[in-house]
Amino acid sequence: xxxxxxxxxxxxxxxxxxxxxxxxxxxxxxxxxxxxxxxxxxxxxxxxxxxxxxxxxxxxxxxxxxxxxxxxxxxxxxxxxxxxxxxxxxxxxxxxxxxxxxxxxxxxxxxxxxxxxxxxxxxxxxxxxxxxxxxxxxxxxxxxxxxxxxxxxxxxxxxxxxxxxxxxxxxxxxxxxxxxxxxxxxxxxxxxxxxxxxxxxxxxxxxxxxxxxxxxxxxxxxxxxxxxxxxxxxxxxxxxxxxxxxxxxxxxxxxxxxxxxxxxxxxxxxxxxxxxxxxxxxxxxxxxxxxxxxxxxxxxxxxxxxxxxxxxxxxxxxxxxxxxxxxxxxxxxxxxxxxxxxxxxxxxxxxxxxxxxxxxxxxxxxxxxxxxxxxxxxxxxxxxxxxxxxxxxxxxxxxxxxxxxxxxxxxxxxxxxxxxxxxxxxxxxxxxxxxxxxxxxxxxxxxxxxxxxxxxxxxxxxxxxxxxxxxxxxxxxxxxxxxxxxxxxxxxxxxx
Length: 496
Hints:
Blueprint: H1 14-17, E1 20-22, E2 29-30, H2 32-41, H3 48-57, E3 59-60, E4 72-76, H4 83-97, E5 102-107, H5 110-124, E6 133-137, E7 143-147, E8 152-157, E9 171-174, H6 182-188, E10 202-207, H7 217-227, E11 234-238, H8 250-256, H9 266-275, H10 279-285, H11 301-306, E12 316-324, E13 330-338, E14 344-353, H12 358-368, E15 373-377, E16 383-386, E17 389-392, E18 400-402, H13 407-421, E19 427-429, H14 433-440, E20 442-447, E21 450-455, H15 463-476
Parallel strand pairs: 4-10, 4-11, 5-8, 5-9, 9-10, 12-15, 14-19, 15-18
Antiparallel strand pairs: 1-11, 2-3, 6-7, 7-8, 12-13, 13-14, 16-17, 20-21
Helix pairs in contact: 2-4, 4-5, 13-15
């Protein structure tokens, strides 16, 4: 969701600035007004977007239970936005409002946990909050804030084993949720099952997009489930810049950070940019941009299955296309064409290690069949130019080039997507395991104002999908280069 200009208002609404806002449809009211009123007594006010987060996070269903008590409140928020302040004030207000509330605030690292403890100490020492505090304890490795009504916030690091052995916990905050293992959840979440609060327990997961080396599966899966429309009991809010944003574009800083530049000054962002010298790190930490691995499947398995037809076969406009993995460890050749019923067909024709086999393999197919086109991604390194024409290297097969970083690839990707995702698919495939696996790890990357295929991670092989995409593009295209010169009396054979 694109943000509106901040010049109109210094307190933009959540719907104006968040890229993704997902919440349970069961919400009928919210406990936020009580929290906001209590914070007002403390002299604390909130911007409109913060009010939006609080309204959803404390949303209640018809039974008076937190609507997100099962799925949790998941916040993907860049640094310097103020998520610790927002969630911290919500927790402090809840502790004052509800006696004997037990809160565990956990981070992955001890350093982060200690910094958060220090921050919340400063918050509760405000003149109008301090009378509600009984004690602050930071000895013997225990860090906690105790309130006069019996409520308590305890702090600790997951790497130090904090969270195991507790029971009757009412609220758990998982800071640094991008580094959150299934084991940590197994240790901590069951403690909330014994919560005695009438509205149920609350779980907060907040963090920045995980690095490729982070154990971020739990955070990533929650995001994928939310924006994939598969969650009915989760609140998910994400602030992020555009996927293809320039790290130095101040307009994109504003899009990612609803507190910039009013509450987060320019120099704070510039300082972070200076310290985070790696562009990818800055995009994740400061701009909230998720890597391709953190996004859901482009074509889900159910939609792909609807287009399956093991007996499918093309009869005309037969087109081969080649794709090679970036590290050249594997290459794929796919076939596309039109079926007798007018629908389109795609399939993986062959896939092998390396690239040495490709040229002779395709040349043999071109010799035996009258092909409509042979499409090659220009980045494969398998093309040579001779007398103004492009040939498959070492052969006499004329190829049609697809610009890897231009409109061709973006158009081709969109064509396959549209053909599969309509209610009655316009393309059929033969349900090959290699193609199915490749599609499951294929993601999007911005390209030419649209998108093209990208790998989920460095180990993923998407060459079957990319080659099939290019094959379909070539089969549907009229202005292609004919691979070979043949007499019109020669028959056309279907490549197997």
